[in-house]
Amino acid sequence: TNACGTVSKRRQGMPKFEERLKKGEACFRSSNSLLAMKWLDKKEVYMITTMHTADFAAVSRYRGLQSVAKP
């Protein structure tokens, strides 16, 4: 089964992310089929997933006038 969701950075078993990120950047850690991610938008977001990859996708904002890259 697939799982995806946000988690606390203090979650047990969550890998350490030491990198300082700029807005829009992300860093990834993986083991077996589990992918952990840290992404900085307005705040730091931590996610774990078994169904996504470490790629960015283009998302349109503001009625299609601006394209933004999101993991």
TrEMBL record:
Residues 1-69 form the PiggyBac transposable element-derived protein domain. It comes from the Eukaryota. InterPro entries: PGBD. It holds the Pfam family DDE_Tnp_1_7. This is PiggyBac transposable element-derived protein domain-containing protein. It comes from Heterotrigona itama.
